[in-house]
Each structure stands twice: as C-alpha cells, then as structure tokens.
Design goal:
By secondary structure, the chain is of the alpha+beta class. It has 20 helices and 12 strands. Among the domains are: about 110 residues, Butyryl-Coa Dehydrogenase, subunit A, domain 1 (Orthogonal Bundle), CATH 1.10.540.10; about 130 residues, Butyryl-CoA Dehydrogenase, subunit A, domain 2 (Beta Barrel), CATH 2.40.110; about 140 residues. Strands 3, 4, 5, 6, 7, 10, 11 and 12 form an 8-stranded mixed beta sheet that branches. The protein has a two-stranded antiparallel ribbon with strand order 1-2. The protein has a two-stranded antiparallel ribbon with strand order 8-9. The longest helix is centred in the middle third of the chain and has 37 residues.
C-alpha cells in the first residue's frame, strides 16, 4: 500500500469548513497567502509521502531498542528526522524572534495530521518538542529562552514532558520526584538537584539529536501536599554552556523501554533522574505552579493527539479502500455465474468504507476548527474576537482529543473488518493501525477525563455560555443548509437541525442536574461528549457540503470530487447525526447504580 497525504482534503476542510480564511484577515500573519499555504501543503505532502511513510511498517517490526544505555530508533528515523529539521518543519508556527517562521499554528497542526498518517511512531516525538517550546515561551526566563528556544524551535534539540510516575498517573497529586535547591551556578542561575523516576516518557531518549530538554514535574522540600505543591523544572540531557554549546552529561538516563501493544517505533522510556546524585535542573515558572505550565503543554498536546487520531484513521481508510478495490469475492445480487467482483461493489463493504471516510473527515473538521480557534484566540483583530475564539478553543479541545481518537479506534477496527480474515493477519498491515491507534484514547488525559472536563470546567465553568453559543451557531448553519436548493444538502441541514436540538436538550438537562447531582452529570459525561462530537463533526461536514454544492457549478473538472463531499456529509448525517439524537436518553439517564463488584461478576 502506498500512503498519500490527503492534501486536497486538508485544504478543503481548512478553506470550506474550519474557517481558515479568518486568520488572513487578522493581519497577524503578513506573509500568509493562498499561494504560500498551497506551497507549504504541497511540500509537506511530499515529505510525509516520500520520506516518512515508507518507514512506518518496518518501524512496527523493528522498533526502538535500548543498547548499553542508549536508545536506538527504528531504521531510517534518524535520517528522516534530519530532513525534518533541514526542511524547517518544526519552526513553522513559532515566533521569528526565536528562529520560527511566524505562520499560524493551524498549518503546524495540518502537518501533525499529515505526519501521523505517514507514521504515528515518528510523528509523536515532534509534538512533544513543540509542547516544550510552548511551555518555555509561556513561563521561561529570558536566560532560559536564550539558552534553549532557538535549538528547540529548529528541532536541533528535542523536548519531553515528564509527568507520570508508577503511583501517579491521571492523578498527579501523588508525584514524588524531588527537587532540592543547591544554590546558583557560575552564571548566577539557581540550580536544583532532581531525583526520582518517571514512566511512559515518549522519546525520553533517542539517537535523533545530541540533546534532549526534559520538562519535569517535581516537589520542592517544603511544598504543600497535592497538586498545589508541584513545580516544573528544565532538566537537559546534557548541560548547556552560556554560548549554547554542550557541556557535561547530566545524570538522567533511560533505564528501560516499555514493550507496547503498538507504536513500536516510538521509544516509551522509564527515566531515572539523579541515580548518582548528580542530576541538576532549573525552575521553569514559579514555585508550586508547575501544573499551570503543564497545562500549556497538555492543551497543545490534546489537540495534537486528536490529530493523531485523524492521521491514523486516514491511513487505515486508504489501506482498506485499496484492498477493497483489488480483492475479488462474490458476485452482485442475483448473479449466479461469471467473474467475481471487487468487494468494493458489495453494499456492506461500501457502507464500511463510507463510515471510515465520514468519521475521518468529521474528525478533521473538528480538529482543524479547534486549531483556527487557537490562532484567533491569540491573534484575533479585537478583544471580542479573541474572547469568543478562546471560548470555542476551550470547548473543542476535549472533543478534539476524545471524539477523534475514539473514532480513530472505530475506523481502524472497521479497516480490519474490510480486509476480512486477511485483516487479522499482520502482513496486510491493517492490524498495525488498530494497535497504534489504541493508545491515543488513553494518554494526555484519558477520554473519560476529557468528558469530565467537558461537563465540568467547560460546561459548568461559564454556565453553559460557550456551549450554547456554539449550539446557536450550528443551528444557524442547519437552517442555511435546510434551505438549499439541492435536496441532498437540505437533507443534511434537516438532520443537523434535529441533532442540534437533541444536543441542546442534553446541555440544558446537564446544567439543571449540576445544581443537584454532580454524580448524575458525570454518569452522562462520556455520552454527552460523543453526542457533542457527532454534532460538531456533522456541522463541519454540512458546511463543507454547502460549499461543495456551489463549487460543483464553478469547477467542472472537480465536480466529481465535490459531489463526493456532499455524499460523505449525507452519509454522516444519516448514520451519526441520527445517533446523536438517540444519545440524549443516555446523557440524561441519571447517576449510575452502585452495584457491588461480586454482583457484576456473578
């Protein structure tokens, strides 16, 4: 199978669903133009297709390995990463003052989509570095920015996020890693001795670069209990001289690689800090305010993880479609003799492929709109625009992360089903996508935690203002589409209207329950997120269908492509917007019964 980055689909979502044109109007990106975006996307596609995608299957068979204390990455990863840095891909959306190109983060997010379709194992390391840049930009001192940012922005060095410990997973209040002040270094910067162990550290060590900048959560000696007592520290693999050159090696090392279900090319490390009592770092931000810095990284990472879901779903779809066009089994209904037909011609196989395509495109719409909202929240022309965009960004972030990764698992599983028995055999590659996709629903806050965030901070935090504003926006689009002259587009509008009404009912019910029974709100959280994700994805697909109906008449050569966009939106409306309507009962069903474990196992 040859993977092709879906540049045309990406541009369609950006231009006709996610509202990318609003970024050009902000004036914050003077170099931004249609020609520039086209050039960036075209070159991104070439890099992903020609350099990264060919490494994916071998990385599954020959994953990262730990040899004599050094992590060796999968064959070809080092060379591909060198081209990533040389191409300036890491610096795309960072400030020019630190060596970046000053373009919208939305373009960098499209790159995350493309890279994950090419190879999720390769791509994940790059997103940790961009998260570290954002945290240092947010909280770093002038000295820290001068010392680390230029080489992190370029990708010459990579970054990590060190949060989890054996006893501290989702609940970081249990973090035990210690940081003890030891006085200033020769440059007058206060140093801390770090000691402890972290687990599940993605790209915690590797052979791609000669330095890794670890951002580590740890406790100061007199820190309060719980999350209020966590600080963040910059702990480099190798210390850095004032002129930017590398000094001595720090006392930090990978002591084990986890053996995982998938993502074999991504080294997941157990990291030991200060085993010899000589690990030093500097405080990032204020004492005991580490979670504040972590959430800067975490929120960026959650959108990136949603895009991992989009990318892996895209690759699973492309593989299944290629197989269905080649594999011959059975005959058309009523035909007894003659040649067997490609399985693509069977109705149920087309149903599965359409489901894969519709879910992938819907997730892409949600994530790209989230990315545009992120940019507008920081660069909008006025305070009103920035405030509204920030509210939408906050609302869409848990949906992007959770709904997109849940649906990626659905898509990868359907892809195995399209292959039939061959899907269960490793040589076809379909199983790799299912194994790789599974982790995305778990890390950066499990999808259950995302649902709790949605019904808690995001819904109740502002009394439902952001959710209701978005619901009103979707209702307006539903009315517009319902009035379309084309019946298939109008049909999408009517389905969207029904789903928006159901979502509004659920939203009002949860806000009402919140005043009386938080347990009941949490019991409906996962179903609410699924409902919200279905409706949001349907909204962006419907926007695309409305645009496609106009473009059909303007572009005769592309008419077939635009007709397909309308058909995919209609399929989603009939299968997943109707599902959204049905979910209101589950959302409002009330608190879960307290059943003793022995009764569940009886």
């Amino acid at each position: 199978m040859t993977y092709t980055t879906p540049v045309r689909d990406m541009r369609f979502i950006l231009d006709h669903a996610a509202g990318f044109s609003a970024l050009e109007k902000t004036g914050a990106f003077p170099d931004l133009s249609d020609d520039l975006v086209a050039a960036v996307m075209e070159e991104m596609g070439k890099y992903c297709d020609q350099v990264v995608a060919p490494l994916n299957e071998e990385s599954d068979r020959k994953g990262a390995r730990l040899e004599n204390g050094v992590v060796r990455t999968s064959p070809g990863f080092k060379e591909a990463y060198g081209q990533y840095v040389e191409g300036g891909w890491n610096s795309l959306a960072f400030p020019e003052a630190h060596g970046g190109q000053g373009l919208p983060s939305t373009l960098a997010n499209a790159l995350v989509d493309g890279l994950n379709g090419a190879s999720m194992s390769f791509a994940i390391g790059t997103t940790l570095t961009t998260g570290a840049v954002k945290a240092i930009l947010h909280a770093g001192t002038d000295e820290q920015k001068k010392l680390y940012l230029e080489k992190l922005v370029s990708g010459e060095w990579t970054g990590t996020m060190n949060l989890t410990e054996p006893q501290a997973g989702s609940d970081l209040s249990a973090v035990r890693t210690k940081a003890e002040p030891v006085g200033p270094d020769e440059n007058g910067i206060e140093r801390y001795k770090i000691s402890g162990q972290k687990i599940y550290i993605t790209y915690g060590d590797h052979d791609l670069t000669d330095n890794i900048i670890h951002l580590v959560l740890a406790r100061l000696p007199d820190a309060p209990e719980g999350t209020a007592g966590i600080s963040m520290f910059i702990v480099p693999k190798a210390h850095v001289n004032e002129d930017g050159s590398l000094a001595t090696r720090n006392d930090v090392q990978c002591i084990k690689l986890e053996e995982k279900m998938g993502l074999h090319g991504s080294p997941t490390c157990v990291m030991a800090f200060g085993e010899n009592g000589e690990c030093y770092g500097t405080l990032l931000g204020e004492e005991n305010k580490g979670l504040k810095n972590m959430f800067v990284m975490m929120n960026a990472a959650r959108l990136d993880v949603g895009l991992q879901g989009v990318g892996i779903a895209e690759r699973a779809f492309q593989r299944a479609l290629a197989f269905a066009q080649e594999r011959r089994q059975g005959r058309a209904p009523g035909v007894k003799t003659g040649d067997m037909i490609p399985i693509y011609e069977h109705a149920d196989v087309r149903r599965m492929l359409l489901a894969m395509k519709a879910l992938t495109e819907g997730a892409r719409g949600v994530c790209y709109a989230n990315a545009v909202a992120y940019d507008l929240a920081r660069h909008g022309a006025d305070e009103n625009v920035r405030r509204e965009a920030a509210a939408l960004e906050g609302l869409l972030t848990p949906i992007s992360k959770a709904w997109s990764t849940d649906r990626a698992n659905d898509v990868a599983s359907i892809g195995v089903q399209v292959h039939g028995g061959m899907g269960y055999i490793e040589e076809t590659g379909a199983a790799q996508h299912m194994r790789d996709a599974r982790i995305a629903a778990i890390y950066e806050g499990t999808n259950g935690i995302q649902a709790m965030d949605l019904v808690g901070r995001k819904l109740q935090g502002d009394g439902g203002a952001a959710a209701n504003a978005f619901i009103a926006l979707m209702a307006k689009e539903a009315d517009l589409a319902s009035a379309a002259k084309r019946e298939d587009v109008a049909h999408c509008g009517r389905r969207l209207a029904e789903a928006v009404t159901a979502l509004k009912t659920s939203t009002d019910a949860l806000l009402g329950l919140a005043r009386m029974d938080q347990e009941a709100v949490l019991a409906g959280a996962a179903d609410y997120l699924k409902q919200f994700g279905n409706v949001a994805a349907g909204y962006y697909l419907t926007r695309g269908a409305v645009a496609a109906a106009l473009l059909v008449n303007e572009d005769a050569d592309g008419a077939g492509y635009y007709e397909a966009k309308i058909e995919v939106a209609k399929f989603f409306a009939d299968r997943y917007l109707t599902e959204a309507v049905a979910l209101t009962g589950a959302v409002t069903g009330g608190a879960l019964p307290q059943i003793e474990p022995d009764l569940l196992s009886a």
